[in-house]
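Mitochondrial import inner membrane translocase subunit Tim16
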Amino acid sequence: MAKYIAQIIVLGGQAIGRAFAKALKQEIAASQEAAKRAGGGRQGDKSAESNLRTGMTLEEAKQILNVEDLKSVDCITKNYEHLFNVNERSKGGSFYIQSKVFRAKERLDQELNAQQQHQKPKAEEQQAEEEAPKSRARQRR
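Structure:
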């Protein structure tokens, strides 16, 4: 009898150990995938910071405003104004939905600003590289 109880305990421990190892592997894989999607490094940190500040991810903000591309600023503004006005409380709309629309627009604006700031240094570097050969040629003369 004691032999059977010991076998049950050992088999139960093994099953729990396997389940724990499998769950750990899945969590690691999910974490790595999330890091890839966030961009990793400094970009990932900035994206995570923006997510925490507004309380929503970039994907969620795009879904709320029904936008697929961040480059279409006119579409973002048009959808925002429409959804914000439709959900106005005086018109029988929902303040909760209106606030979600506002936060989505805020999150997309933050992302657009981050992209512009990221592109600025690149443009300055390119400009400096273009001017560098000219100044070297002048120095040789």
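Residues 95-140 form the longest helix (46 residues).
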